[in-house]
Specification:
The chain is an alpha+beta fold. It contains 10 helices and 21 strands. Strands 10, 11, 12, 13, 14, 15, 16, 19 and 21 form a 9-stranded antiparallel beta sheet that branches. It has a 5-stranded antiparallel beta sheet with strand order 1-2-9-4-7, with helices on one face. Strands 3-8-5-6 form a 4-stranded antiparallel beta sheet, with no helix packed on it.
């Protein structure tokens, strides 16, 4: 979004500048006057509000602008307010997006937001929205702005109390900064029975790992994997790149017939679910037949596929295109990625011995889904991520004149999101207590991996790294689908 400085700074402007903003200055003074504060106190029952602090700014969210779910609890904030200044001659509608969305508490996890909002407020001209700021309760977000014809303009700010709220430790910011237990990195891994993962005991093979795979391995892998990646000379190039960079993206990883079948399924699923290329998404799109929403929304929202278990009255044969897509990805995961042959191929790429794995199948729906970097996902022990990604990389003309057409909305430049980012955790001793982000201009990003059709992304995560998948815009060509497998590498000094 675009944002001015705090309007409290208007008091330090020179007379010439102040004279250019008489209405804004009058409005600001009225908002923070004793009379209006007392009115807010009466309406909300929030208790006494401090008159010592002005805290508001002008904001503009243009097309694609959004704000993910949070509760606004920072410092002494008590009441949040928004005055909407959208164009009165062009009334705002639900087709324009940009609604203030309100989330209930999750029934499964107290003090966290559910995955779907239950109320929304459009940014209607000359209207004021406000709510009490409460830790672990006042969950809200700003829906993506769909229109490119008009900006979502507002004055947004807070009234403060004399003291921070009770139970401030429940605030979403505090939850994002909370570290996971020390053993969390190894929880959930399916340990391999053979710690050598089927590799030869030959010393030269351990050192260079360029000896051919067995005939059985090759025969199996040739059913799925592009033959380019089954050649020792290519392994050497990948090893060199991986050793230098700690990551590599292997494009066109699966054979074309396998990848094309997946592409056809994901395109049909996105079409049937009315997702991507400017379509306005429904929160329940694609849910069911094995797909379930994953939250809480202040940390993540995406769909995860778990193969349904047949019952006496039904089978696990899907009927929807999303279900068929999930079933196909599950087949690739169980047959290929969970095979010992694939584990041995990974060692050819990385020279790393693998002790165990865990994984999931994900769908990030355009206009809806994302994950957030937080200390709960901080890497504590080195891990190898193997992410097999699928996206619609074709282009179509979009009939929705409100949104840029598909030819301008590709995955390559990251403008529609969907990329996976790996970044260093911020030093907590330098973290500002009252901001959600770094404010010193320094970049903490380490690596961005763009979503690419039929790509295998290998990333070695060292201690202190976080990762997240960037919110996928409704302008994206479709969903980001992936199978993510995380492997536990053997320590360099591990004798077992």
């Amino acid at each position: 979004m675009y944002q001015t400085g705090d309007l409290a700074n208007m008091d330090s402007l020179d007379q010439e500048s102040t004279a250019k903003l008489p209405q804004l200055l009058a409005l600001r003074n009225a908002l923070y006057s004793l009379q209006f504060r007392e009115l807010i106190q009466d309406i909300t029952g929030c208790g006494e509000l401090s008159g010592d602090r002005t805290d508001c700014a002008c904001n503009i969210h243009d097309q694609g602008g959004h704000l993910l779910c949070h509760d606004d609890v920072i410092g002494t904030r008590r009441i949040s307010f928004i005055i909407y200044l959208t164009d009165p001659d062009d009334p705002w509608t639900s087709q324009d997006g940009g609604a203030l969305e309100l989330y209930p508490e999750s029934p499964a996890e107290p003090h966290t937001p559910d995955t779907i909002p239950t109320a929304s407020v459009l940014p209607v001209w000359n209207s004021l929205a406000m709510f009490k700021v409460e830790p672990g309760k006042s969950f809200h977000s700003i829906q993506e702005v769909y229109t490119k014809e008009k900006p979502r303009m507002s004055i947004q700010g807070w009234y403060h109390a004399a003291e921070p709220p009770e139970m401030a430790k429940l605030a979403t910011l505090q939850q994002l900064q909370a570290r996971a237990g020390e053993d969390v990195a190894k929880l959930g891994f399916a340990m391999f029975h053979n710690t050598d993962n089927g590799n030869s005991d030959d010393k030269d093979d351990d050192k260079n790992d360029l000896n051919p795979l067995s005939e059985e391995d090759m025969s199996f892998l040739q059913q799925y994997v592009n033959e380019t990646y089954l050649k020792p000379d290519v392994w050497k190039k990948i090893q060199t790149w991986f050793a230098d960079e700690g990551s590599v993206q292997l494009q066109n990883f699966l054979k074309s017939d396998v990848a094309d079948k997946v592409l056809g399924l994901i395109k049909k699923a996105d079409g049937d679910d009315k997702l991507g290329r400017g379509e306005i998404p429904a929160y329940g799109a694609g849910v069911g037949e094995g797909w379930e929403l994953v939250g809480p929304s202040h940390k993540q929202r995406y769909a995860r596929f778990v193969l349904p278990t047949p019952t006496s009255s039904s089978t696990n044969t899907p009927t929807s295109s999303s279900g068929l897509c999930g079933q196909k990805l599950s087949e690739i995961q169980s047959h290929l990625l969970h095979s010992e042959s694939f584990g041995r191929l990974l060692k050819k790429f990385t020279t790393i011995k693998l002790l165990g794995r865990k994984g999931e199948i994900r769908r990030f729906r355009p206009g809806l889904d994302y994950t957030v970097a937080h200390y709960g996902v901080l890497t504590q022990d080195p891990q190898l991520d193997a992410v097999l990604c699928f996206v619609d990389h074709t282009t179509n003309t979009n009939d929705n004149n409100n949104i840029d057409d598909g030819n301008n909305c590709s995955w390559e430049d990251g403008e529609v999101g969907g990329f996976e980012a790996y970044l260093l955790a911020e030093d907590e001793s330098n973290a500002a207590a009252e901001v959600y982000r770094r404010d010193d201009g320094e970049e903490t990003g380490v690596l961005n991996v763009n979503a690419a059709q039929n790509s295998l992304n290998l990333i070695l995560r060292d201690e202190g790294l976080m990762k997240f998948v960037k919110y996928v815009s409704c302008k994206a060509p479709g969903s980001r689908w992936d199978i993510v497998e995380t492997f536990l590498p053997e320590d360099d000094d591990d004798d077992e």
